[in-house]
Amino acid sequence: MDKAVLQSALGEYFAPWVQALALQVESFDADSVTLRLPQSDSLSRVGGMLCGQAMMAAADTAMVLALINQFGEFRPCTTVQMSTSFLKPLSKQDALIQARVVRAGKTLAFGEIDLRGADDGKSASRASVTYALL
Questions:
Q1: 3-state secondary structure at position 2
Q2: Which pLDDT score, from 0 to 100, does residue 47 have?
Q3: How far apart are CA 24 and CA 4, in angstroms?
Q4: Do the strands 32-37 and 24-28 form a parallel or antiparallel pair, or are they unpaired?
Q5: Cα–chain-centroid distance for residue 11?
Q6: What are the helix (H) ranges across the chain?
Q7: What is the chain's pLDDT, residue by residue, as a tens digit (134 residues)?
Q8: Which residues of 53-75 are buried (b: 16+ CB within 10 A; e: fewer)?
Q9: Any idea where the Thioesterase domain is (predicted)?
Q10: What is the separation of C-alpha 96 from the centre of its chain, rounded to a whole number of angstroms?
Q11: 69 near 62, Cβ under 8 Å?
Q12: Are residues 115 and 59 in contact, defined by beta-carbon separation less than 8 angstroms?
């Protein structure tokens, strides 16, 4: 796997509104992918806080890329469950979203996601997810 393949997957497999998040592949390793979500007024609430909907969309997207990384190719999948906890507001900084595959079987995959501030490194949101592999 390489960074260019993961980055190109964002344009190939995701809806235009997800592409509008302008996510960038920051890094990856054997079982995780980290994306950067640039700070944007269009994704922020009053006071410059990143909205929860953008956090959840970025987290879900990051996990699909982590699965591509895990399998070495895109496999059709769908989110079955996503449990998200918002720990603190994220304001006026990019977000880093690290998605880690906990287990990938034949029909289900499980993962954990940490969304943190790119400047302060503090977790703003955590999620656990289950995907059906189609």
A1: coil
A2: 86
A3: 10
A4: antiparallel
A5: 14
A6: 3-13, 16-19, 52-71
A7: 999 999 999 999 999 999 999 999 999 999 999 999 999 999 999 888 999 999 999 999 999 999 999 999 999 999 999 999 999 999 999 999 999 999 999 999 999 999 999 999 999 999 999 999 99
A8: ebbbbbbbbbbbbbbbbbeeeee
A9: 52-122
A10: 9
A11: no
A12: yes
Side by side, the strands of the sheet bearing 108-117 are 24-28, 32-37, 95-104, 108-117, 123-133, 77-86
Return d(Cα 100, Cα 38) in angstroms, integer: 20
pLDDT recorded at residue 19: 97
Instruction: Kindly report the number of other CB atoms within 10 A of residue 81's CB atom.
Output: 10
Give the fold, CATH level 3, of 3-133. Answer: Thiol Ester Dehydrase; Chain A (3.10.129)
**CA–CA separation, 10 vs 39, rounded Å?**
18
pTM for the whole structure: 0.96
Identify the residue whose tokens are 């059906």.
132
pLDDT of residue 82: 98
- The encoded tokens of residue 113 equal 């996601």
CA distance 69 to 37: 19
